Amino acid sequence: MSMMGELNFFLGLQIKQTTNDTIIHQQKYIKELLKKFGMDSSKPIDTPISPSTKLVVDDENSPIEEKICRGTIRSLLYLTASRPDIIFSIGLYAHF
What we know:
Layout: E1 9-10, E2 13-17, E3 22-25, H1 27-36, H2 66-79, H3 87-95
Antiparallel strand pairs: 1-2, 2-3
């Protein structure tokens, strides 16, 4: 690593090292995901999803893009490396 300099990015993780601590986050990855899936103008919320939220199956059989849906879920699952608070929401989303 000494030949390459200080480590800033690794597998989608941003790493900031100071003399006292090391901070790992995925802010850039999240911004790229929002842009990729057309959600960059969405409003942020404090709680990803309420445990009492009930999701229902769409009986109208409206077509969905499976490739986009699966890509979204895979991308969100990768985020759980640094955001364990969203595991419940992602699991619920993957179920439906």
